[in-house]
């Protein structure tokens, strides 16, 4: 079992930055693929970034070069650094965990979710 708790969301102007954190409980955290998803009103949940157990990273085309995912296994925490934010980045952001070496992009393949943190980017 893994429990996830996100923090770091908020409101920022376009071009600004935010850093999201996701604290995980559970002794096997290091064996999980971790990912950040987002969901805007009326849209499907999409994976914006993922990091596997070997610290390989994956990004959606819409955020590549602006967002960076990292993990600190000693602190059981995964981070999402978001730079050059755009109004279209506005969404609820969720941390998710999947007990697999394969870091899927499909939400239904992740068994553990945080409660979400809101990110709002104004123009």
What's the short version?
The chain is mainly β and 123 residues long. Helix content is 0%, strand content 48%.
Characterize the structure shown.
A hairpin with a 4-residue loop joins strand 7 (67-72) and strand 8. The strands form two sheets. Strands 2, 4, 5, 6, 9, 10 and 11 form a seven-stranded mixed beta sheet that branches. By secondary structure, the protein is mostly beta strands. The chain contains no helices and eleven strands. The radius of gyration is 13 Å and the shape is globular. The chain is 0% helix and 48% strand. The mean pLDDT is 94. It starts with a strand and ends with a strand.
Taken from the alpha-carbon principal axes, the silhouette is globular
Helix content: under 10%
Largest sheet report:
7 strands, mixed
Task: Please give the oligomerization state of what you see.
Answer: single chain
**Protein structure class:** mainly beta
Which runs of at least 5 residues are low in confidence (pLDDT < 50)? none
- Strand residue content: over 45%
Q: Give the helix tally.
A: 0
What's the overall average pLDDT, rounded?
94
The helix-strand sequence is: EEEEEEEEEEE
> What's the total number of strands?
11
Distance between the termini: 40 Å
Rg is: 13 Å
Task: Kindly list the characteristics that best describe this protein.
single chain, 123 residues, mainly beta, seven-stranded mixed sheet, four-stranded antiparallel sheet, 11 strands, 48% strand, globular
SSE blueprint:
Layout: E1 4-7, E2 10-13, E3 18-24, E4 33-39, E5 46-51, E6 57-59, E7 67-72, E8 77-82, E9 91-98, E10 112-113, E11 117-122
Parallel strand pairs: 2-11
Antiparallel strand pairs: 1-3, 3-8, 4-5, 4-9, 5-6, 7-8, 9-10, 9-11
């Amino acid at each position: 079992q893994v429990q996830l708790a996100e923090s770091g969301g908020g409101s920022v102007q376009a071009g600004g930055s935010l850093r999201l954190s996701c604290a995980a409980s559970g002794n096997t955290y290091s064996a999980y693929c971790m990912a950040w998803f987002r969901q805007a009103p009326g849209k499907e949940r999409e994976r914006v970034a993922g990091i596997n157990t070997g610290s390989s990273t994956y990004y959606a085309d819409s955020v590549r070069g602006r967002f960076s995912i990292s993990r600190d296994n000693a602190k059981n925490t995964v981070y999402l650094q978001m730079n050059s934010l755009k109004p279209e980045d506005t969404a609820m952001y969720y941390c998710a965990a999947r007990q697999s070496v394969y870091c899927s992009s499909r939400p239904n393949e992740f068994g553990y979710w945080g409660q979400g943190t809101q990110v709002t980017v104004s123009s």
